[in-house]
Write a structure and sequence with these properties.
Blueprint: E1 19-28, E2 31-41, H1 53-69, H2 74-95, H3 100-109, H4 116-130
Antiparallel strand pairs: 1-2
Helix pairs in contact: 1-2, 1-4, 2-3, 3-4
Length: about 150
């Protein structure tokens, strides 16, 4: 009799960024193997390990400065800012941070396509939050530019 394939394990977390308490039992042909995990975090398969929070903030600062300086082609700046935002969001999740900087990174990273004006406004907000400004505003003076796409 040929061995039967194991059923696909159910997804443990339906929403990323949520801690899940889980126990999984996988039946094998020769017996049972028990896996017990007390805290499982949603993560992207194949994604690199999250950077330390301070390093992710530093990379985001560098990317935001590059956007405001226009240091490169628009597509390169878009990639640099997007990668920095995704890295920051991942680091925030790994550290358990939910501060305004992390919230902005989460919101801005999913905006597609990013216009140059959006990138500038977001970069301005990022720098204001990183440098410790009390209330970040965009270059145009309107708050929360990362929430709307022109």
């Amino acid at each position: 009799m040929a061995p039967r394939p194991l059923p696909t394990a159910p997804r443990l977390a339906t929403a990323p960024r949520r801690a899940v308490v889980a126990s999984a039992v996988v039946a094998a042909t020769a017996g049972a193997v028990i896996f017990s995990q007390t805290s499982v975090r949603g993560a992207v398969m194949g994604a690199p390990k999250a950077l330390p929070y301070a390093e992710a903030v530093s990379r985001t600062h560098t990317a935001a400065e590059a956007v405001l300086a226009g240091a490169g082609a628009e597509t390169c700046l878009r990639g640099k800012l997007t990668n920095a935002l995704l890295g920051l969001s991942s680091s925030c999740e790994a550290k358990g941070e939910r501060n305004p900087l992390c919230q902005l990174a989460d919101k801005a990273a999913v905006v597609t396509p990013m216009s140059l004006a959006f990138m500038r406004d977001t970069a301005t907000q990022l720098l204001a939050l990183i440098d410790g400004a009390a209330t970040p505003t965009s270059a145009s003076g309107s708050p929360e530019p990362a929430l709307t796409q022109p």
